[in-house]
Design a protein that fits this description.
This protein has 294 residues and is α+β, with helices and mostly antiparallel strands. It contains five helices and 13 strands.
Length: 294
């Protein structure tokens, strides 16, 4: 055994030349209150080994991800509400939708369409009267008359604010029903379009390195394709003659490499590739390097 002193170097570490760590199982305090380190041949000595990569479980995801089913443009949303209204009746008993819910949704659909129609009339009317105002003020030779009074659509029963919130809540209830399926959703207009996946011929991770707290932090992201990817396979060349070795299979950006720094300045080079399940997909990232230790 050897007597420890501050910043002592462990000659048996892997890689060699690393400082002793507080969690080293070969360290202990002797009866004299001083710190000691067991060495090969000492009783209870535990051999050192290279730290193993820390794979993480791939995150569960749908393999056919879809965009939000709800239409964003007002006119498209109004049409979606009406599609649902016209078709929900044939599925109401199967999906557990009550008559009161059907009535409320129909009223929401009617009033939202009415509101859009009123808006269109007002926009057109405003444009016409703006033109007439300019003509009256500035004059001109065109032959025209004042715009006719606006003709508004027939009134319908008003509803409380929150049409979209109520519709989302109803759709959530329906999709949670055991009898719901995608075909039914297509008829009701509540299935979003399938997203287009990334082009694996060109997709590659983008890595950025920094040192924080005496450790290398590898910054990376899904680049907007998280729905199509499971994990990042990260490898490193520590300039120790072993070439690139696996660091981790990471499922959550970013990753911190906890390997202790060497005693002398050394260039560590990282690269990565995305994975889906057990398969690599896309291209390897560019190699990025950082000097550590010393």
């Amino acid at each position: 055994m050897r007597l420890l002193h501050w910043d002592a170097i462990n000659p048996h570490s892997i890689p060699p030349g690393q400082p002793y760590r507080w969690d080293d199982p070969n360290l202990f305090f002797g009866p004299d209150g001083l710190g000691y380190a067991r060495e090969p041949g000492d009783q209870n000595f535990i051999s050192y080994a290279a730290p193993a990569p820390t794979p993480t479980q791939p995150k569960p995801k749908h393999k056919m991800p879809k965009s939000d089913y709800l239409k964003r443009r007002d006119a498209d949303f109004a049409a979606q509400l009406n599609t649902f209204k016209l078709n929900i009746g044939q599925y109401s008993a199967t999906l557990g939708v009550t008559a009161a819910q059907i009535s409320t949704q129909a009223e929401d659909a009617a009033y939202f369409s009415h509101t859009l129609a009123m808006q269109d009339v007002c926009i057109n009317c405003g444009q016409q009267w703006t033109g007439w105002k300019d003509f009256i003020r500035e004059g001109g030779t065109q032959s025209t008359t004042a715009p006719a009074p606006a003709l508004f659509p027939p009134a319908v029963a008003a509803v409380d604010p929150g049409v979209e919130l109520r519709f989302r809540a109803l759709v959530k209830q329906i999709k949670a029903h055991t009898a719901y399926n995608e075909s039914t959703g297509q008829v009701l207009g509540i299935e979003g379009p399938v997203q287009t996946g990334p082009d694996f011929a060109v997709l590659r991770p983008l890595l950025r390195l920094e040192i924080n707290g005496g450790q290398v932090v590898i910054r990376w992201s899904w680049q907007g394709h998280a729905a199509f990817l499971d994990m990042l396979e990260l490898v490193v060349d520590r300039a120790d003659g072993k070439g690139f070795v696996t660091v981790a299979f990471d499922t959550t950006p970013d990753y911190t490499d906890t390997t202790p720094f060497p005693a002398t300045p050394t260039k560590w080079t990282y690269k990565a590739i995305y994975r889906v399940g057990d398969q690599r997909v896309g291209q390897w990232s560019d190699e990025v390097s950082i000097t550590v230790g010393g």
